[in-house]
Write a structure and sequence with these properties.
121 residues; seven-stranded mixed β-sheet; four-stranded antiparallel β-sheet; 0% helix; elongated
């Protein structure tokens, strides 16, 4: 079975930084892309950033210039460096992976458990 394990969330003051990590484990044939989504209280879940195994990235307009997504393909791990954090960044952040399980080799999406990021004024 495939699991996504996240770390790095927490409480930070406005203007501060955090780095989130997400490692995929299990019987994985290949990973096409990984990314981060977030959901604030009372709002819909939204895309934050994605990155393909080839290195192509995509960012939400609200985080461009402040957040950077990167990956370590050898470790099946994706990172989200968050700088200049704002109170509106407060949300539960979810890791997502589009991958091919080893047994089926059919594309599937997997989600992490979510980690809380709180930015205080």
């Amino acid at each position: 079975q495939v699991q996504l394990v996240e770390s790095g969330g927490g409480l930070v003051q406005a203007g501060g930084s955090l780095r989130l990590s997400c490692a995929a484990s299990g019987t994985i044939f290949s990973i096409n892309a990984m990314g981060w989504y977030r959901q604030a209280a009372g709002k819909q879940r939204e895309l934050v950033a994605t990155i393909t195994s080839g290195g192509s990235t995509n960012y939400a307009d609200s985080v461009k210039g402040r957040f950077t997504i990167s990956r370590d393909n050898a470790k099946n791990t994706v990172y989200l460096q968050m700088n200049s954090l704002k109170p509106e960044d407060t949300a539960v952040y979810y890791c997502n992976a589009e991958l091919l399980p080893f047994t089926t080799r059919v594309r599937q999406n997997y989600w992490g458990q979510g980690t809380q990021v709180t930015v205080s004024s």
